[in-house]
Every structure is written in C-alpha cells, then in structure tokens.
C-alpha cells in the first residue's frame, strides 16, 4: 500500500491554492480558443504558423511537437516494445504539474507492459497511460472529441455525451455468482439487478474483442479512498481521451510512475461506450445499454452510454459494498464534507441537485470533497480526487468557488455554448440540451480545498432534501432517533436531468440519500451511522433546498443564499441562540429566527397563500413518509417507525 503522503493531493499551502489559480488564469489569457478548435480533427496536416498567428506560436509549436510524437507511435513498425515519457514540457503550475505518471507504450507488447493483456486486450499497439492534464488536452483537440470553451477563468474542454445526459439506472446490473460472498451480502432487487455469469462473459468478450480492433486506447491507474487503510486501486480502459480526462479529474491521481510500480488493480472497468448490446433481449436486459459489474471477477463493462458519471458512480457502488465488510466496519456515504480551521468537520447528505456540491464549497471552510466519503475509526475521508458539479444557472455571484474552478483541466459536459466570433462561451442558463449540465475538475481547483482529504469525526450531519411539495421548512433540528428515521427515509426529489427520463422534479424516497448506490440493505448503513452518531455525539439537521410558498409549479425554489445562511447558522453555532417551535406533524423543531433569513420563510405554512392548502399538503407528505417506511418496520436492531410523522 502506498504511503499517504505520496497519493494525497499536493499544494503549496495546507488550505490554499491562490497562487495556482492566478497562474492558471495568467496562462489561459494568451491565445485564441478558435486556434484550438481549428486543430480539431486534423490528422496528417497541421496549420501553418501564419494561419495560427503570432500570439499562439508557442502553443502551435507545442501541439506540433505532440502531434509528431503521436504520429511516430502510430506508424511504428518495430518488433520491439518501446516506452515514452511525456512529450510535453512540465507546466509552470507546481500543483497541476505535480501529477505526472504519464507513459506511452508502443509496439506489439504495449498491452502487456500496460497491464491490460491479462484482460485479453492485446490488439492496440499504442497505449496512452495516465496522461498528464496537458497531454489529455492535446489528445482531445487532435481527436476532435469536443470543443474548447472560453470560460471566464480559462479555456476548458467541453464534450457532448449524446442522448445520455445522466445515469441510466435501469441498465445497471450485478452478476449473481451463486454461492459467492456477494451473492450472500448483496441486497438484490430493483437497484441491484441480478444477471448471470454467462451474460457477463459474453459482454466481456464483446468488449475485449472491440478493443482488440483498436490501434490505440487509454488506460488510467488510480485510487479510490484517501485513507490508505481502505483505499482501492482502480484501473479504467477507455477508447477516448476525454474519458481518461474525466477519471483523472475524479479519482485520486498518482504523483509519479513510481507510485504505480507493482500496481495490481482491485477492480477494472472496460468502457466500450460506443458499442451496444444488440442481444439485450436474449440477455434479459432492459435495453441495448449495459453497465455490468462482476464483484468476484473484479471487473465491469460499459456499453451504449457516454455519460461520464457511469464511471464514477459504478465505483462508488462498489465502495458501498466493500467498506461495511471491513473489520471494523466502515460507513460509505453519499455526501459532501468540509472542515474549518479548527478541525470542525461537517457532512452534507443528499442526492444530485440538492446542494451537496454548492453548500460544501464554502469560502470560509476547506473542502474535503463534494460527493462520496467514508467514515471510519480515524474520522472521515474523501473517496475521490475531484468534484462533479451541476452547472445549471451557474454564476460567479451565487456559486463563486465552482464558477472559478472552470478553467484549463476542468471539463464541461453537456453545457450549451454560444458562438461569439472566434470563440465558444459557456451558457449555463441555456438548458435546451439538459438541466444536468456538469463540470468535472480536480479538487485543487477549489482555492481552499483540504489537502489531506481526511478530517476528524464530524460535529454536524446535515440531511439535504429538495422538497417538491413546498412543505418542509428550510431548516429543522432532529433528535438522534429522528435522524435515523430520516436517514433511512431519504426524502428528496429527483431533479430534472440527473437520470434518464426525469424531466421535472418528482417526490421520491431514496434510502440513506443514495439508494441507487447501496449494495447492502439500507438498515446496514443506518446501524453504522447510528453507532457513529452515538459515539461522537454529532448533531443532525434537515435542510430543505427545494420549494417554498407552494409546490413545484406554484412556489419558488429556495434561494441559494437562504439555504447557505441556514447552513452557516448550524456551522458557526449561532443557531443555538434562538428559540424553537415543535412541528406537530413531523415532530422536529423549527428555529424562530436565523441571521439574514426571513422569519416567515422558516415556517413554511406562513409562505402559502392559503394555510389550509398547506395543511393538506403536509398531511399528504406525512402519509407518504409513513407508507414508504412500512418496508423498514421491524428491520435492523431498532424499529424507528415511531419517530416519523404523526398522521
């Protein structure tokens, strides 16, 4: 196992990165985006310096050097395998340039040297492994995989993933290996749909055969989990540079090739996204899209969907399987996390679109991570090495940290672009493609990220709900028992675009605020959280980032500032200075006042034009809670039914 110092994200300061941001901005100011876009699709010829222009001469020369280097590999006919290091100069940014484990393997034994011949992949004669950010950018442009957008803080590569702009949960499958460990522990059902070993073997062979027709491919070796005690080694095999860019952003990167010596993956993902399963009906699947995991064979295959999130969430599901089986058991969590200068950490649970990324990116606190974490005997730790933020209606005023993180090395996904002469400018307010536009970026793009990616045990646990009925208050305090009830319930709304087929918010209950990724029964995670809350005396809260003044279509979405002020009151302790009123239906306590929040908004009944309509809506939602929780009655060590709403 690698020492933590060699795999943790590095920076010049423990909580900063301002110098890096200034360097990135300075670097991106020279040269036109149209230059890069004009190179897209070029293969055998390059533009002349006269066409490029004086300002871009250096960038032109760098691209020519890389292009020539790549062409040499593709045309090589030698029978001896050769290995190349990066053809590009190291960037002037010490943080960005600190991750260089790049290798290029060429020749008939390239696959063996890259470690993928064990998978049966032996056809490609050029393997681009763990390319640097700069190399990936050059490959993306040359391969014509997207466009270079002129974001305000720097040029950013952008891709369009076609009709799949969100996950396709109905197409995720796990192999049911009869009599195996996963067979005994997996919570089989709608979320963890079983398929057979025979189906997996056919799809695996199809994926391998496809890659064996390719002259080149991209391989990424990295890590999931910042705590070395439970860290997993992950390998991805991709056909496009942007996909390697995505996992390079999202997983924990090696600092150098020496960190990967003797690398044996705990799990491998073969992503053949351009291919489909024509035999899906024979295989008993739901469509020609297939995302299939075989826990015992330590491998997954992806067909038919280009959406980057399938790579990340697939591994998260596996972490949800592995960690509760550790000794002692660890709690995997669908949450974001941050920490203040005194070590006071906080967790934010919630589904996509509820505010996990937005609220954890706090200028007054250091970001640990925005989506996936673990909680063990040492404290909390990030699973990832980057962030995956929604860009809908993004502005510097409302979400400055995320907005400023969009520059070179970030990657935009399904974001509309405005053609402004010689450049493309992101339009975050244009949702004609999808409301689930995204940006992935390495975590050091956040100015005040927490370098160790680990922190002590949290003092506050915040459950984020996007309430489509306009019933929940913007903030409420929970007893420990109520916390368990609401953790298991996981009430929120599926927000438009985050999953295939979702076009507008709809009420849903997602156990542990992440049912789509749970591989064990929800009560197993609930018992782990219960133990953590009791042992470390953490407080639990409900924060509603959804609607106020009426349901979706009538009321309005809570403003980001209102939600953030509620969260600030929790984290800075000022919420303890107020008085409380108990809700007679849900039983939680609502504060009488919070700094910079309208007192009427704190009491949702006051925001409705007809209070009687609110009472009816509250009763309806309470009944939905009760009906949903019936399946958990009597399960686990404690029955928390009595701590739910009263109807």
Number of strands: 32
Q: How many strands, which pairing sense, and closed or not: the largest β-sheet? A: 10 strands, mixed
Counting helices, strands and paired strands, the structural category is alpha+beta
- What best-fitting shape do the alpha-carbon axes yield? globular
Distance between the termini: 53 Å
Brief digest:
It contains 19 helices and 32 strands. It has 647 residues and is α+β, with helices and mostly antiparallel strands. Strands 1-2-3-8-9-10-12-11-6-7 form a 10-stranded mixed sheet, with helices on both faces. Strands 13, 14, 15, 16, 17, 23, 24, 25 and 28 form a 9-stranded mixed sheet that branches.
Model description:
The chain has 647 residues and is α+β, with helices and mostly antiparallel strands. It contains 19 helices and 32 strands. Strand 16 and strand 17 form a beta hairpin. Helix 7 packs antiparallel against helix 10 and helix 15 runs antiparallel to helix 16. The longest helix has 19 residues. The radius of gyration is 25 Å and the shape is globular.
Structural key phrases:
alpha+beta; ten-stranded mixed β-sheet; nine-stranded mixed β-sheet; 32 strands; disordered N terminus
């Amino acid at each position: 196992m690698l020492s933590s110092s060699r795999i943790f994200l590095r920076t010049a300061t423990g909580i900063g990165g301002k110098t890096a941001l200034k360097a990135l901005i300075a670097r991106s100011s020279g040269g036109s985006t149209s230059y890069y876009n004009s190179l897209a699709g070029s293969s055998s010829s390059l533009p002349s310096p006269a066409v490029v222009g004086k300002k871009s001469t250096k960038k032109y020369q760098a691209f020519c050097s890389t292009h020539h280097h790549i062409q040499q590999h593709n045309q090589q006919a030698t029978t001896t395998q050769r290995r190349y290091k990066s053809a590009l100069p190291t960037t002037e940014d010490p943080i960005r340039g600190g991750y260089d484990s790049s290798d290029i393997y060429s020749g008939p034994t390239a696959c063996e040297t890259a470690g993928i011949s064990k998978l049966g992949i032996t056809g490609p004669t050029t393997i681009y492994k763990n390319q640097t950010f700069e190399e990936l950018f050059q490959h993306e442009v040359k391969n014509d995989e997207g466009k270079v957008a002129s974001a305000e803080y720097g040029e950013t590569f952008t891709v369009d993933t076609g009709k799949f702009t969100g996950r396709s949960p109905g197409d995720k499958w796990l192999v049911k290996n009869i009599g195996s460990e996963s067979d005994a522990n997996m919570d089989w059902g709608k979320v963890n749909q079983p398929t057979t070993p025979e189906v997996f073997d056919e799809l695996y062979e199809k994926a391998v055969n496809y890659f064996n027709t390719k002259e080149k491919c991209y391989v990424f070796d990295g890590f999931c989990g910042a705590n070395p005690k439970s860290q997993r080694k992950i390998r991805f095999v991709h056909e496009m540079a942007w996909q390697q860019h995505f996992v390079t952003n999202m997983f924990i990167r090696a600092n150098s090739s020496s960190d990967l010596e003797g690398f044996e993956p705990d799990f491998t993902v073969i992503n053949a996204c351009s291919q489909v399963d024509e035999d899906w009906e024979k295989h008993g699947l739901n469509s020609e899209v297939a995302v299939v995991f075989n826990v015992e064979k330590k491998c997954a295959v992806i067909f038919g969907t280009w959406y980057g999130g399938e790579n990340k969430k697939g591994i998260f599901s596996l972490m949800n399987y592995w960690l509760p089986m550790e000794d002692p058991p660890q709690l995997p969590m669908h949450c974001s996390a941050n920490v203040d200068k005194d070590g006071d950490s906080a967790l934010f649970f919630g589904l996509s679109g509820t505010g996990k990324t937005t609220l954890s990116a706090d200028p007054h606190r250091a970001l640990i991570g925005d989506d996936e974490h673990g909680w063990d005997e040492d404290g909390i730790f990030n699973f990832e090495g980057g962030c995956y933020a929604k860009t809908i209606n993004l502005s510097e005023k409302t979400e400055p940290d995320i907005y400023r993180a969009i520059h070179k090395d970030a990657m935009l996904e399904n974001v509309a672009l405005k053609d402004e002469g010689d450049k493309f400018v992101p339009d975050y307010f244009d949702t004609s493609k999808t409301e689930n536009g995204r940006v992935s970026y390495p975590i050091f793009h956040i100015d005040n990220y927490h370098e160790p990616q680990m922190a002590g045990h949290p003092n506050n646990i915040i459950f984020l709900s996007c309430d489509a009925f306009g019933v929940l208050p913007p903030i409420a305090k929970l007893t420990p028992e109520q916390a368990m009830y609401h953790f298991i319930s996981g009430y929120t709304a599926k927000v438009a675009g985050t999953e295939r087929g979702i076009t507008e918010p709809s009420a849903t209950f997602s156990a542990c605020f992440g049912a789509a990724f749970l591989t064990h029964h929800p009560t197993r995670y609930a018992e782990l959280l219960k133990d953590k809350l009791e042992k470390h005396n953490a407080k639990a809260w409900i924060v509603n980032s959804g609607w106020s003044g009426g349901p979706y279509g009538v009321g309005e979405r809570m403003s980001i500032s209102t939600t953030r002020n509620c969260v600030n009151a929790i984290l800075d302790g000022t919420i303890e200075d107020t008085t409380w009123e108990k809700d007679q239906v849900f039983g939680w306590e609502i504060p009488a006042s919070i700094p910079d929040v309208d007192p009427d908004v704190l009491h949702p009944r006051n925001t409705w034009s007809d209070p009687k309509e609110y009472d009816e809506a509250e009763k309806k939602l309470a009944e939905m809670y009760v009906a949903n929780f019936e399946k958990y009655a009597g399960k686990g060590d404690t029955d928390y039914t009595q701590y739910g709403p009263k109807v």
